[in-house]
Amino acid sequence: MKELQEEVKKLIEFIGFREFSVSCDAEGNRIALFVADKEIHEQNLPTMVAHFDHLIKLMAKKRGIAGVVFVDVNNYRREREKLLLELARGAARKVVATNQEIALPPMNAYERRLIHSELASRPDVKTESIGEGRNRYVVVKPIE
Predict the structure, then answer these.
(1) At a CB cut-off of 8 Å and minimum separation 6, what does 6 contact?
(2) Which burial class, exposed, middle or buried, applies to 64 when counting CB atoms under 10 A from its CB (0-12, 13-18, 19+)?
């Protein structure tokens, strides 16, 4: 994982960022990038995370690093995960209060998995993914 960290640093420098840090958590297979650049805007972060995620996963695969590698840029992924878990809990509370199902916005597979996992232990609601491709979303339903 240390070699991958050094390669990622070289990649970030090659792209042109000067003020950044790269940290790795080998146990959790997490790589965190912090880029201090005024050119990075909030609306660009999802795209930036997706591109770095793809590149770094390819680099990890080439190095034989097993398992899933999670890439986060400027804590975007961590904050997004917190927001999604809060959304799931809020939807579950509303479903229980109104006894009506709630459809959440379309999400990628990883985000849908977070929702399902968060609500799996609740005995009063169930979740289901509906739709195809980019339009796939989670529906939170009351258990009758």
Answers:
(1) none
(2) exposed
2-74 and 78-142 agree in CATH topology: no
Distance CA 105, CA 108 (A): 10
What confidence tens digit (pLDDT) does each residue in 80-121 have? Answer: 999 999 999 999 999 999 999 999 999 999 899 999 999 999
* Class of the CATH domain delimited by 2-74: alpha beta
Cα–Cα distance between 65 and 68 in angstroms, integer? 9
- Look at residue 98 in the predicted model and tell me its pLDDT: 96
The domain 78-142 is placed in CATH, from the list 3.20.20.70, 3.30.1370.50, 3.20.20.30, 3.40.50.300, at: 3.30.1370.50
Contact predicate 143/119, CB 8 Å: no
For tokens 């609306």, name the residue. Answer: 43
